[in-house]
Amino acid sequence: MRTPLPVPGAGRRSAHLTDAWQAVQARAFRAVLDRLDARGVVAERAQRTELREDANAAVGIALEGSDLALNGFERGQMVEALLDEIIGLGPLEPLLADPTVEDVIVNGPTRIYVERAGKLQRMPLRFRDDAHLMATIQRIVGPLGRRVDEANPCCDARLTDGSRVNIVVPPVALDGPALSIRKQRRVALTANDLVRGGSAPREVIDYLALAVRSKFNTLVIGGTGSGKTTLLNILSGYIDEAERLVTIEDAAELQLHQEHVVRLETRPAGPDGSSAVTARELMRNALRMRPDRIVLGEVRGAEAVEMLQAMSTGHDGSISTLHANSPRDALARLEMLLAFSGLPFEPRALRRFIASSINMIVEVSRGGDGRRRIVHIAELCGVEGETYRLHDVWKQDAEAPTLRAAATAPLRSMLRAGARRQMMDAEGA
User: Is 244:291 a contact under the CB 8 Å cutoff?
Assistant: First the structure.
């Protein structure tokens, strides 16, 4: 059983943070590897219970001649930390195992933070030095065939449980290697969780469910960590089981539960700059795979062209996310991405193209209390002159969880209209 971590701020300074602790743990790490090598045991393939006796003995050896005095509880902590180092990701292991932790953030070897309920807190953990942190980073990227070094200082990767990892190392990172882990939820959030948590009223969720079933092409927007992917996962649950879905992501983290799903993931360039597979190439290929809907994890570049073409040419109900602060900001960003792709369209033609492709924009936001909420739903109804026509279905202040009375009537009206459309479609079938 893992010895619990000390509570931040409780009692004396955590022994985990001292250089003496780190030095003893480093000696114990070398000692236990020597013991395992002598018996021909591959540490990575061994079970935690099999290694505990060796780890306990190695800690005893490392403490001999050391000025560090540990009580029984602290010695148990060092044994567990040593086991984490041998078969896991060292100081990150207890954080990855904690179901209340949403994000893990490492700013150099001595500053480790977690996000819980939307708020950051510093943890009483550290790496020994930059080399220790880099060794852990290489343990993450090595099995994936990725490379992180001075020539390739930035990397996106994925842990075996689906958690998304971003890595930046020197010389780009000035204060030591930086690591960010967005943990994959073991149990995905549901629409009922959003309602119970105050992220959206029930009738907003009902509207979004109806829009997805009615095959609205949808763009989910918001800032970093605002809950875009979480909402996309929930919306995907309303897609009919009979439909064929193709997903495209930089680091696969979507949790679609339909049976007929094909998951595609981009690939960065190799050390020689070749063999990269971009989101745009995957979008082009996806169009040849007879998808009913395409789910693009995030549109951030030239793949915007293929995404909008798919939405406007028979792949109704496709969904993507985009970093933007409002529906109009999202539309302006799409125009910019299309322009960067080299399309020779003049502004009015670009706007007609976008308006003919996207039906609905859903904005999510994280408030000062850490809670993520759906704050704006707008339908894109075309272009008038030089301006997009947006119909606000739902809008609220990110800090106010209550339904605004002004939005209630049109929302209910649209729900009734959508229900009538579904009934007419069923009768026609």
Answer: yes
Considering its fold, how many domains does the chain have in total? 3
More confident residue, 397 or 26: 26
On whether the CB atoms of residues 287 and 310 are closer than 8 A, the answer is: yes
Written as six digits, the tokens of 271 are 């050390």
The phi, psi pair for 396, rounded to 5°, reads -150, 160
Q: Structural domain of residue 2, as residue ranges?
A: 1-86
Q: Which residue has the tokens 């003893």?
A: 24
CA-to-CA dists, residue 164 to 147, 181, 266, angstroms: 16, 6, 13
Spatial distance between the Cα atoms of 71 and 55, rounded to a whole number of angstroms: 16
Residues 144 and 208 in one domain: no
| Nearest in space to 2 (alpha carbons), one of 112, 79, 115, 102 | 79
Alpha carbons 93 and 81: distance in angstroms, whole number: 9
Strand 112-116 versus strand 119-122 pairing type: antiparallel
Residue where one domain finishes, among candidates 167, 184, 201:
184
pTM over 0.85: no
The neighbouring-strand residues paired with 142 are none
CA 284, 286, 287, 292 dihedral sign is negative
Q: What is the pLDDT of residues 228-280, one digit of tens each?
A: 988 999 999 999 999 999 999 887 778 888 889 999 988 877 666 667 888 99
Shared domain check, 130 and 5: no
| CA 281 and chain centroid, separation | 22
Q: Closest Cα partner for 82 from 189, 180, 3? A: 3
Q: Strand pairing partners for 392?
A: 378
Give the pair of three-digit tokens for residue 277: 């597979």
Evaluate whether 121 touches 95 at the Cβ level (below 8 Å): no
Q: Write down the pLDDT at residue 61.
A: 87
Largest CA distance in the chain: 85
CA dist list (Å): 123 to 115, 131, 256: 10, 20, 33
Choose among 427, 418, 411: nearest CA to 216: 418
Q: How far apart (Å, rounded) are the C-alpha atoms in residues 28 and 13?
A: 22
Distance CA 66, CA 74 (A): 15
Residue listed under structure tokens 């790490």: 29
